[in-house]
From TrEMBL:
Subcellular location: Plastid
Cellular-component GO terms for this entry: plastid
Domain of life: Eukaryota
Originating organism: Gossypium davidsonii (Davidson's cotton)
Keyword check for Plastid: yes
Biological function: Probable ATPase of unknown function. Its presence in a non-photosynthetic plant (Epifagus virginiana) and experiments in tobacco indicate that it has an essential function which is probably not related to photosynthesis.
Protein name: ATPase AAA-type core domain-containing protein
């Protein structure tokens, strides 16, 4: 089992990884990011690519309008 310190470190690594991906996309913009199977992403922030981290990053960054040259497409095979 992971202790609390390890879980905190994993959460920080996840945040860094998502931030790094979007920073690379900004540098290479215009850019398209495709997220297949968005329904598989978890809402908590304790996994590799969580929906919560993604939404937080995009909503925070949209306020500064620095993602205007990045198109994010998320797809699913589950009809609603």
């Amino acid at each position: 089992m992971m202790n609390a310190l390890t879980m905190d470190m994993m959460s920080e690594i996840d945040r860094f990884y998502i931030t790094l991906q979007f920073e690379l996309a900004k540098v290479m913009s215009p850019y398209i990011i495709w997220i297949p199977n968005i329904h598989d992403l978890d809402m908590n922030e304790a996994n590799y690519l969580s929906l919560g981290l993604l939404v937080n990053y995009l909503s925070k960054d949209c306020e500064r309008c620095s993602t205007r040259n990045i198109l994010v497409i998320a797809s699913t095979h589950i009809p609603q």
